[in-house]
Amino acid sequence: MRQPQTSHYWTTAKNIPQIHFFLKMRLSKAKVRALVQHGPCQPGLKDNFSDFVANSCNEKFKIHWYKNTSGKVSTDRHWLVYSRLSAKMFWFCCWLFAEKGDQTIWSDPNKGFDAYHKGMDRIKHHEELARHRKAEKTLFITKYRITQDKTVIAGLVQAERLTIEKNRRVLKRLVDLTLFLANQGLPFRGHREYAGLGAPTVNEGNFLELLKLLAKYDTIIDNHISELNRGYKYISPESQNEIITCLGNETLQMIVKEIKDAFFYSVIADSTIDISRVDQFSLSIRYVNESGKSVERFIKFDELSSGSAESFHDSLIKALQELRLNASNMRGQAYDGAKTMSGHISGLQKRVKDSCSSQALYVHCCAHNLNLILLDSATSCTTGKLFFGTLEQLYCFLTLSLPRYRILTKQQDKMIQDTALTLKRFSDTRWASRKHATDAVMQNMPAIIAALEIIIDDARSEPRAVADAKGLLATLNIFEFMFMLNFWNTLLGKTYSLSNYLQKESIDLNAAIDQIDSCANALRGLRSEEGFNNIEAFAKEQAKECDTSTEFRRLEFKQENVLQMNSPQMSLYLTGGHVLKWRHFITF
C-alpha cells in the first residue's frame, strides 16, 4: 500500500479531513486507519454547505456528482472528495491506496481536478479504470477489516493495549507494595539476601518476600513473576530504587506546590550523623496549607562538607534553589542553640537574614529549651545525679541479663494486677524517656525489691551480681530514694504534657503560652511547704507497701559545712528531709 504524503488532516471547522492538508509528509498507518474510519470529505451531501468555488470557466462542483444514478438505481460515490480549501476534486480510494506509478491528478494532493465543465465525463471515465477499481477494492476490504477489528494493525494495537494494561496492573501493585514498606519504615532488601526470586528457604528481603506472599492470592502477580523473561519483571533492586525515586519525586512536587501556594514558609534545619558516620544536613519546611492548618514537611538529607555555619548556609541555599522556592518569602528559622546555628554575628541564622530575608525570625526550639532546663536541673545537685544514676543502673542490671529479667517478670506477674510497665532507659535528648522511666519504677517498685532479694539469696548468682543487687537494694531501702522517685514523677508529669505540646506540628502560639504559664504556676505551687509534705506523704505510703524505710536519715554536719559557726566543737544534726528541702526541692 502506497503511503501518501500528508500533514495534519483535520480542519479547524467541522472536523472534516481535507486532502489539501496532506502535502510533503507521509501518512502513518494510524492516520490511514483514522481516515478510513472517518470517511471522505463530501461537503454539501449531508449538510447545508453550498458555497462551491467556481473555476476559470465559471463552472462549479455539483452536489449530485456524489451519486451514481443509472435509471432508477442510485449509489453513493464514497470515494469522491471535494476539498473546500483547494476547491478541487480527488478520489479518496486512489489517494490512499493507489500503487506507485498510478498516481494521477485525482490522487495527488498537490494537484486535484477542477475542470468542472468536464466533471461528469471524467468521473465516469476514471471509475472504469482498473487502477481505480483496485484501489476501491482495497478501500472496501480495509474498511471491513477495521469494522470487524481484523486488521494486522488492529491485532498489534490490541496486543499492545493488553500488554500496557497488564503492566499497569502489575505496576499498581508494586507501587502499593512500595508505599506499604515505606509507610511502615521497613527496609526493602539486605546485602546478604539472594538477588531474585529463588528457593522458598532463602530470605530474599521484605520486597520480594511480600511479593511472593501476594502471588499466593493474586493471579496477576503470580503470572508476572512466573514469566521466563526476567528483564521485564520490575522487581530488580534497580527497579525498586526507580519506583522509590519516582514516588519520592511526586511527593516532593506536591509538597513544593503546597509551599508555593502558601507563599510564606519557615525552615527547620539540623545535622545528624548516620550509621556510616556521615554528617548530614536535614531540612524540613513549615507552612500553612490552604485549609489554614500549619504543617511540617521533611524535605531532604544532604551531606555536609563541614560543621561550619557557612557549610550549613550553602546546603540550605542549594536546597531552596533546587526546590525553586523564593528565599525572600522565608519568615522563620528554627535551629538548636549551638553557636554555629544561633550565632548573631556569623551563625546560620545571621547569614540567612543577610542573604535571604531579613524578616526570617530565628526561634530556638521551645521543647528543646524545656528539655535543657530540666536536664540542667537534674544534674545541678548530687542527689539528682544519684537518683537518675540509680534508675539507669536498675535498668541495666535487671533487663540486660535474661535470667535476672525472668526473675523480675515473675515477680511482676505475682504482685502487679494491671499490665506491668517495662523498665525504660532514658536519654538526655528525649526527656519523655525519663518520665517513662520513673513511671515504670513507681509501678514495679515492690517487684523490683523482691527480685533483688531473690538474686541476693540465689546460690547460683555470681558474686558480682550479688554485690550489685545488694548495693541497689540498699539504695532503694533509703527513704530519700522513695521521696525522690515521687518528687521527679510528679514534676515530670507536670512538664510532660507541655513538652509534647511544644513538639506538635499544629502548635498554636497563644495556646503554647497558656500551656507554659500553666506549667510554671503548677511548679510554683509545688515548690512550697505544702507541696513537700504532700510528696513526703505519698512516698511514705509507697514505702509501707514495699516494706522499706519510711523516715529520712539523721545526718550530722560539721560547722564548716553549715552556717560557718565560730565554735570549732559544735556539730548540727539534721534529717535527710531538711537536706533535700534546702539543696534540691526548694532550689529546683
Fold blueprint:
Blueprint: H1 29-38, E1 67-70, E2 73-76, E3 80-83, E4 88-91, H2 92-97, H3 119-127, H4 130-148, H5 152-183, H6 205-215, H7 219-225, H8 237-262, E5 265-273, E6 279-288, E7 294-303, H9 309-323, E8 330-335, H10 339-342, H11 348-355, E9 361-364, H12 366-378, H13 382-399, H14 402-415, H15 432-457, H16 463-477, H17 479-502, H18 509-526, H19 529-546, E10 554-558, E11 571-575, H20 576-585
Parallel strand pairs: 5-8, 8-9
Antiparallel strand pairs: 1-2, 3-4, 5-6, 6-7, 10-11
Helix pairs in contact: 5-6, 5-8, 6-7, 12-17, 13-16, 14-15, 15-16, 15-17, 17-18, 17-19
Description:
By secondary structure, the protein is an alpha+beta fold. It has four domains: 19-150, no CATH class; 169-235, no CATH class; 262-364, Nucleotidyltransferase, domain 5; 372-550, no CATH class. Helix content is 52%, strand content 11%. It has 20 helices and eleven strands. It has a five-stranded mixed sheet with strand order 7-6-5-8-9. The longest helix has 32 residues, at 152-183. The model is unreliable at 1-17, 559-565 and 569-574 (pLDDT under 50).
